[in-house]
Amino acid sequence: MFTKILVAIDLSTVSENVFEKALSIAKLTQAKLMILHILSHDEQGSPIVEGITGLNYYEMVELETLKSYQKRWQEYVETGVETLKTYANQATEALVSSEYSQLTGKPGRQICQVAQEWNADLIVMGRRGYSGLSQLILGSVSNYVLHHAHCSVLIVQLSPQTE
């Protein structure tokens, strides 16, 4: 049924549920997993440049602020890699073949592009649950993937107490 499953994760604890769902499907179908994390300024917990106020992006940013941001971004990158390694190890323990990748960019576009290049036949991902104005302003990664992916997409709906 499925031979290649791309599981899109972020650094939130709810990604554990998404990964578990993808892993269980991979075990049942003997599929290979691609564990993908997209580094994005939109991700909860990603570093921001402090000191920029309002909409004036041309303000001068002090060198120390920039260095602090670069350090926090590097920590964010390293945390992402460690998270991916942890999930890959769990897959190995479950006797599921896996690989992982971490990229930078717009999550929806990157997920669809990697899925197509890797020839995934299923994408498994969660959803943040934005609605109304938040969804209009921030968009919805899961909505983008549903409408642009070349393959089947499974959205793991999380219970309110999980979010």
UniProtKB/TrEMBL annotation:
Pfam families: Usp. Keywords: Cytoplasm. GO terms for cellular component: cytoplasm. SUPFAM superfamilies: Adenine nucleotide alpha hydrolases-like. It is found in: Cytoplasm. Residues 1-156 form the UspA domain. Its main location: cytoplasm. The keyword Cytoplasm applies. CDD domains: USP-like. InterPro entries: Rossmann-like_a/b/a_fold (IPR014729), Universal_stress_UspA (IPR006015), UspA (IPR006016). Belongs to the universal stress protein A family. This is Universal stress protein.
